[in-house]
Structures are given as structure tokens and as C-alpha cells.
Amino acid sequence: MKEKHHLLLAEAIAGLNDESVMIVRGSGDGSVNDNSDEVRAYGQAELGNRFIDEGKVAPERVLDNLDVVVVANHREPMGRTVLEAQLSGVLVVVPDQGGSSELVKDQETGRVYRAGDSNHLREVLASIDPASDSASELRARALQQAQDTVTPQSYAEHYLSALGAAL
């Protein structure tokens, strides 16, 4: 999970209001780059009960009850998770580098932050805080625009294009 940059996300969330929660779904694979124990320890130390590690969940539950999906890994080659979140009506926040950045137009279909910059990520997350009335218009507009532009057909086209194939 080290390559997923969960520590960056935890650091950003630590500076947000007491209602912001970090939920990690999935689990470490035991590889050299797996720092799930470090993420868990840091998350619990910095966020306390605002850090929730759910481990593996059924695929159909991955996006359940989420306000926002954050992609912290700027080296992610394809944003399948981004497309799935957009199709499901979940707002996405992505870094300005990597495959996910190709799928989101800032303030139109989600939000974009400077890759590797936890302070900027915190600012972006604060701008879409579900508890903030001022952020509700931006959230609603971005969610609607994403729902209007991301269809199962466009999802398949994006995904196959990234794989070098065509429909």
C-alpha cells in the first residue's frame, strides 16, 4: 500500500474538521511495498477513531456510503476506480499526474490537487466538505457533470483505450 500514498491522505485528513473520516478498503498484500501496518499505525495515531480500516470488502460494497473517493497515488496508470466512482455518483479527488488526472476536469467532474502535496490535498478536501453549505453547489455540479459524461459506454472506451484496444 506504500505505492498508494495512504500516508499522504491521512496527513491531509488530519488537518480537516473532526467529522472527516478516512476509510481504507482492501488490504495489504504482504509485498515489499506493502506498508499497511505503518498506514494503520499512522492513521490511528493521527486520526484516532476517524481512521477506519475495513480490510477486504465485497466488490459491490467498495463505494458504499462514501462521500468522496481520493486517489492519492499519482503513478496510477488507469483510473478505473475513478470511473466506477463517477458512475456510482461518488465525487472523486485525484492528483494532477497519472491516469486518474486524465478522467477528471477540476471543478467540473471532480477535483484535482497537486500530486504529493498533502497541504493542497487538504485544501481541496476542505472545499468539498459535505458539511459545508458553500461546497454543496460545487459538489452537486461536479457529480451531475460526471454522471452526464461518464456512461458505461464511455467507461469501456476509456478503459479499453488505456489497454491499447478499441471497441
TrEMBL record:
Domain of life: Bacteria
GO molecular function terms listed in the Swiss-Prot or TrEMBL record: transferase activity
Keywords carried by this UniProt record: Transferase
PANTHER family: GLYCOSYLTRANSFERASE (PTHR12526)
Identification of the protein by name: Glycosyltransferase involved in cell wall biosynthesis
Organism of derivation: Psychromicrobium silvestre
